[in-house]
Design brief:
The complex is a heterodimer of chains A (about 150) and B (about 270). With about 150 residues, chain A is of the alpha+beta class. Helices cover about 50% and strands about 25% of the residues of chain A. Chain A has helices at about 25-50, 75-80, 105-125, 130-154; strands spanning about 5-15, 55-60, 65-70, 85-90, 90-105. Classes of the chains: A alpha+beta (about 150), B alpha/beta (about 270).
């Protein structure tokens, strides 16, 4: 059976100021990516993106984004992502950059990767916390991340 | 998993900014970073100066994402040279781990490729290349183990710079066929860094093949670092290391096992 194959790009939006993450929303990411593709690949790029590109999921607490596009030109979209230097949201410009963590064929594989990645992050951050309250804070934060991942599949 | 390296981070006197850049690099997955010190070579003799000691930056270096080791920070010197006679090897070179040259004219480029003792030759990213790349010096550099570097920070900032970077990069690829190329950031702020897989993808825009693009961020960078290390060794085989152990302890040797017996006898 012939079906339309797509690629899900799992990206992390990195900002210098953690409180700016709360300003993110899906529309801002969508327009930023569209603008970057049109600047990098011109009308051809914009046309391909117009076919089947969407922001499937955005977590404002952690900055994780799922972008979906066709399998035939996900590389073109991926190559335009490094050129994004800021997001426009609610009238404010947030300087940021996109770090692509994983490319998967389905949301489920991306979710599996995200769970592994979050447990790695937890291992990295745990030695640095200095008190019990910080530890509880970190664990709660990452549990929230994992909870959000499971939400996506449903 | 390959070890990624970013061999050009602009060195500033602002310690906090440098710390945040290195932390971002560790978060993105770079195992090695090199702090760049840019020097314009003057006709008269000049002091290049020692780089700041790397261990002053951090008490504990941040751990690289996905690995258990801390990030490795090195010092690098870039000389902007417009005349062949200006390039002189001074004693200050030994404080830097990597030496790079940014040639401004064709003669300097030819000299850098064929004879100068450098590890990296920088390709212009902010202006149109004033000379064309010819095959003989490029292939001579490839045989010697010198690498060509493309820096992408300018491309991220401005649209005109992006055009220059891409056109210079593609004209280099046409001549060198994608060999001995490294891509590095030249970042001045932590937001100008990009992840290694993103940069490997950017390499496709620059005309590299998929394998070459990934090598440009990992294997070629490691080779450039080793090339820089050999400057501190004798013929690239023996390296002496000061040890705080008793005098009868032998020097640290990198000689192959077959030669070890002879050296021990000596």
């Amino acid at each position: 059976m012939v079906r339309f194959k797509s690629r899900y790009l799992l990206c992390e939006v990195c900002v210098s100021n953690p409180s700016d993450l709360r300003l993110l929303d899906e529309r801002a990411v969508f327009f930023a990516v569209k603008a970057a593709v049109s600047r990098a690949h011109g009308d051809y790029g914009t046309a391909l993106i117009g076919m089947c590109f969407s922001v499937k999921y955005l977590n404002a607490h952690t900055g994780v984004v799922f972008l979906r596009c066709r399998k035939s030109h996900y590389r073109m979209l991926w190559s335009a992502l490094p050129f994004i230097s800021s997001l426009e949201s609610r009238g404010q410009r947030v300087p940021c950059f996109f770090n692509c963590l994983h490319v998967g064929g389905t949301i489920r594989t991306c979710q599996k990767f995200l769970i592994r990645y979050n447990t790695q992050q937890l291992h990295r951050l745990l030695p640095r916390c200095r008190s019990d309250s910080e530890l509880v804070g970190y664990v709660g934060f990452h549990r929230a991340k994992l909870h959000c991942c499971r939400f996506v599949v449903q | 998993m390959a070890a990624f390296a970013d061999l050009c981070i602009s060195g500033t006197n602002d310690k906090k900014r440098l710390q945040s850049i290195i932390e971002t690099a560790a978060h993105l997955g770079y195992s090695t970073v090199a702090i760049n010190h840019l020097v314009e070579v003057q006709p008269k003799k000049q002091e290049i100066g020692k780089p700041k000691c790397v261990s002053e930056l951090f008490d504990h270096f941040p751990i690289v994402q996905g690995r258990s080791r801390p990030i490795r920070v090195l010092n690098r010197l870039t000389l902007v040279v417009s005349d062949t006679s200006h390039f002189r090897q001074t004693a200050d070179f030994k404080f830097y781990d990597i030496i790079a040259i940014y040639p401004k004219t064709e003669k300097v480029f030819h000299a850098a490729c064929m004879s100068c003792d450098v590890d990296i030759i920088c390709i212009a990213a902010t202006e149109k290349q004033p000379f064309h790349f010819k095959r003989p010096p490029v292939f001579g550099a490839i045989e010697r183990g010198v690498f060509f570097e493309i820096s992408y920070a300018a491309a991220i900032k401005d649209s005109t710079m992006r055009r220059y970077t891409i056109s210079n990069a593609i004209s280099l690829m046409e001549t060198c066929k994608g060999k001995n190329v490294i891509v590095s950031s030249g970042a001045e702020k932590p937001l100008e860094l990009r992840g290694p897989y993103d940069i490997a993808n950017l390499g496709l825009l620059f005309g590299l093949s998929e394998g070459d693009a990934k090598a440009a961020v990992s294997a070629n960078c490691r080779a450039a670092l080793l090339h820089g290390e050999t400057r501190k060794t004798a013929l690239g085989i023996i390296r002496t290391v000061k040890k705080s152990q008793p005098a009868d302890e032998r020097e640290d040797k990198e000689a192959p096992p077959s030669k070890k017996a002879k050296l021990d006898a000596m």
